[in-house]
């Protein structure tokens, strides 16, 4: 397969829990087949807690990223159909390129780390909300 940005041959690499991904040695982008992002999301090999502590929650980041990708027409390296740029999970502030046909995902350099930080933040917030919910539920019965 070739990189959708610079047409360099993608190289097969192992990421985290031995998940096979395809990486461009030139631009650093990453191709994920259907299901590989979910597999990465389930692993917790890297700790991003320091990055989370330093990272402000910037609502305008997704808009700026979308503006950078407007007009960019990438061809899927797997099935050669045109990919669509969209924000992952509509609240991650990470714009990814998705193939509507084979459901593969192209990530520009650094976007996999941004997504892993989003996954970790989501886990922490879910745990916090769960704790708050049960604490408020307990007060109902006191």
TrEMBL record:
Domain of life: Bacteria
Residues covered by the Transcription factor zinc-finger domain: 2-40, 75-115
UniProt-recorded name of the protein: Transcription factor zinc-finger domain-containing protein
């Amino acid at each position: 397969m070739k990189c959708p940005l610079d047409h360099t041959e993608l190289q097969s690499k192992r990421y985290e829990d031995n998940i096979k991904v395809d990486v461009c040695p030139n631009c650093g982008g990453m191709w994920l087949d259907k299901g590989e992002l979910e597999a990465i999301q389930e692993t917790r090999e890297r700790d991003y807690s320091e990055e989370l502590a330093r990272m402000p929650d910037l609502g305008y980041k997704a808009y700026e990223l979308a503006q950078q990708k407007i007009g960019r027409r990438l061809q899927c390296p797997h099935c050669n159909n045109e990919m669509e740029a969209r924000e992952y999970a509509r609240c991650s502030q990470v714009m990814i390129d998705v193939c509507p046909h084979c459901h593969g995902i192209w990530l520009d350099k650094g976007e996999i780390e941004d997504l892993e930080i989003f996954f970790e933040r989501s886990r922490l917030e879910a745990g916090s909300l769960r704790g708050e919910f049960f604490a408020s539920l307990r007060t109902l019965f006191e």
